[in-house]
Amino acid sequence: MVTAILLAISFSVTLIDAYIIEGSLTPPVEAPMDWHAHTRIHVDGSQYVGFVRPDGTFQVSGVPSGSYLIEPIHPSFIFQTARVDINSKGRIRARRVNAPQPNAVDELPYPLKLSTHGKAVYFKPREQLRTIDLLFNPNVLYVLVPFLLVMVLTKMVNTNDPELQKELQQMNLQQQLPDMSELLSSVSLFGDRKKPSGSGKRRVTDDGNRAIGTTSEAGFGSATHHGSSGRKEKKRRAQ
After folding, report:
1. Which pLDDT does position 217 carry in this prediction?
2. Contact call for residues 82 and 39 (beta carbons, < 8 A)
3. Which residue has the higher pLDDT, 110 or 232?
4. Which UniProt keywords apply (predicted)?
5. Residue 41: closest CA among 55, 22, 66
6. Strand 82-86 vs strand 66-73: parallel, antiparallel, or unpaired?
7. pLDDT over threshold 70, residue 204
8. Which domains does the chain have, with CATH numbers?
9. Which of 47, 71, 129, 136 could lock 42 by a disulfide, CB 3.0 to 4.6 Å apart?
10. What is the DSSP letter of 52?
11. Alpha-carbon dihedral of residues 101, 106, 110, 112, nearest 10 degrees?
12. How far apart are CA 110 and CA 168, in angstroms?
């Protein structure tokens, strides 16, 4: 008996402290007829769950005072979210969800009127080759940017200016004239080639030595011949 009384009292207290969050959803034009059957209203995740009627309205009952995040969930569409604040006196205030600034207050009308943001995307589409990607390729920029700069500079410079033409002619003359250092180096190398080398001197001395040796050999041979002839005459006289 006492337990039943306590349960009744607690139930009445919960009924007094519980409130109802209500609103409506605006489906997209391409939504099917049974879109409401696949839609759920989640309050603070899945702490409280509500269903959507065919006309798009919903009610979530049994919610105590506090601050709650309202999220309509559909497998094919993304709906707008909202935050609902319920104070102890039962006053309900709705505001927009601002993730970068949670404390910023941007009030929404209550009962809630939430629309869709678009279709849910579960797979990232494959990137396709574009002309802009080719143009911004670093290898292409290395070739294209200098070429464009040359074209722009040639357009900016006035080639008909007489002073500019004189400067260009002087630059061409300087490029055509030989460098003095290179000229002097070539002259010095040419002069070294004319000087007699040491090998020629050695060749002359070697030829001279050979000539002297031949003469001495000839003299030695003649002396030997005269000596042998004298000996023969002495032998004849002795006989």
Report:
1. 47
2. no
3. 110
4. Membrane, Signal, Transmembrane, Transmembrane helix
5. 22
6. antiparallel
7. no
8. 2-119 (2.60.40.1120), 131-193 (no CATH)
9. 71
10. B
11. -60
12. 80
Exposure of 20 in the CB half-sphere (CA atoms within 13 A): 8
For residues 24 and 111, the answer to whether their CB atoms sit within 8 Å is yes
- Count Cβ atoms below 10 Å from residue 215 Cβ, excluding itself: 10
Give DSSP secondary structure letters for 38-79.
Answer: G-EEEETTTTEEEEB-TTSEEEEEEE-SEEEEEEEE-SSEEE
The arithmetic mean of pLDDT across residues 141-162, rounded, is 79
pTM, entire model = 0.49
- Identity of the residue numbered 16: I
> What is the distance, to the nearest Å, from the Cα of residue 1 to the centroid of all Cα atoms in its chain?
78
DSSP state of 125: P
How many Å from the N-terminal Cα to the C-terminal Cα in the chain? 191
CB 93 within 8 A of CB 110: yes
The whole-angstrom separation of Cα 23 and Cα 60 is 9
Amino acid at 42: H
The per-residue pLDDT for 211 is 46
Question: What's the token pair of residue 121?
Answer: 């995307």
Single-letter residue type at 34? D
Helix (H, G, I), strand (E, B) or coil at 24: strand
Q: What is the dihedral of CA 121, 123, 124, 127, to 10 degrees?
A: -130
27 SS3 class: coil
| Angle formed at CA 35 by CA 34 and CA 39, multiple of 5 degrees | 125
